[in-house]
Amino acid sequence: MASIFGNFPVVLLVSRAQTQTLHGRTGAAAFPTVSGLQVQDRPNRVAVVVKAMGEGSESSTSLSIVKSVQNVWDKPEDRLGLIGLGFAGVVALWASLNLITAIDKLPLIPSTLEFIGILFSAWFTYRYLLFKPTREELFQIINKSISNVLDQ
């Protein structure tokens, strides 16, 4: 649930549309009717708290990854595999950084690889990130890969 807090001058919140008086009192200041809106009275200022109600988007994979790792960690026979997978990831990162450093010292290769990277990034953005249906396709591919890796 997300919340937004604000402290605004009364003039910014006055509306001529459907209004209600502040805390049921009659007065010069009237405020719009909004569900989840709390208004507190202060001299010449109004403090507003708005809370978003409802579910978030289901495309968030980070929470499902954390839950999957927690499920694997809860099984004692899978802990060693999870530790080994984490160690292998650290070793792979270290090796790839050393490989990139070695390639970067060669003449002409870094600028060529940078150009290829720019072209690939532009293609990937056009192919998967620019339009909503292809973003959903990318999320499905990522979720499928994660479930294949974690054997679900």
From TrEMBL:
Subcellular location: Membrane
Membrane topology of the entry: Multi-pass membrane protein
Residues of the Cyanobacterial aminoacyl-tRNA synthetase CAAD domain: 67-150
Highest taxon of source: Eukaryota
One GO CC term on file: chloroplast thylakoid membrane
Residue spans crossing the bilayer: 80-100, 106-126
Signal peptide: none
Keywords: Membrane, Transmembrane, Transmembrane helix
Coiled-coil intervals: none
Cited InterPro entries: CAAD_dom, CURT1
Name listed for the protein in its UniProt record: Protein CURVATURE THYLAKOID 1C, chloroplastic
Species of origin: Punica granatum
Record lineage: Eukaryota, Viridiplantae, Streptophyta, Embryophyta, Tracheophyta
Gene this chain is encoded by: LOC116201338
